[in-house]
Amino acid sequence: MMRIMVKQSIKIILGVEILILLSKLISFGFFINLQIAFLSSLFVILGSAYAHRKMVINDVESENIGYERDFLDEVEDPHELYDDVEINNAPAEELNLKEIVQEERKKIKTFSVKSMKKGARAGVSMFRLAPYIFLILGFIALKNNNLLDIAIYLPSLMVGIIVGSISSKRVFS
Q1: Does any domain span residue 89?
Q2: How many domains does the structure of the chain reveal?
Q3: Residue 39 belongs to a domain
Q4: What is the pTM of this model?
Q5: In a domain? residue 10
Q6: Distances in Å between the alpha carbon of 90 and those of 95, 99, 104, 105?
Q7: Residue-range definition of the domain harbouring residue 68
Q8: Does 7 map to a domain?
Q9: b or e along 44-56 (b: 16 or more beta carbons within 10 Å of the residue's beta carbon)?
Q10: pLDDT tens for each residue of the chain, 173 residues long
């Protein structure tokens, strides 16, 4: 099953590459901008999808799975005010304020070496860095050789994003 999905993704990528090669009939400048932008964005999407998949598999194997709130939940409700957690409705005289403050301090996430390692591991993966290096060097090479045409380059990035997202969904899901 996995081989079939990989073959389908390769067929899609090769089909788009043939169309890109045909764009050389328009002009070399159009072709080279389209080719560099397509490959750059394709590599970024595929590299990020593969690195994310690898990180998730490692977390599952190490049983390092915990409940984490979604990014949107964090933005909309950073202090968890709208969660369905029971609030202590005891009278003020019966509450131990020191204990409540200590519990709330435990909930506050602080910057730690462990959180830094997890974030760095996700961001410093070679599968993510290499495509961005290719993107930057390709852009600089086009600019230095006076071949860069932003009107072609920027929309061409979208072609790679679309093909990369379709391919990564087929292969890495």
Answers
A1: no
A2: 1
A3: yes
A4: 0.68
A5: yes
A6: 7, 14, 17, 21
A7: 2-81+94-172
A8: yes
A9: bbbbbbbbbeeee
A10: 667 888 888 898 899 999 999 999 999 999 999 999 999 999 999 998 888 888 778 777 777 666 666 666 666 776 666 666 655 566 666 667 777 777 777 767 666 666 666 666 666 778 888 999 999 999 999 999 999 999 999 999 999 999 999 988 887 76
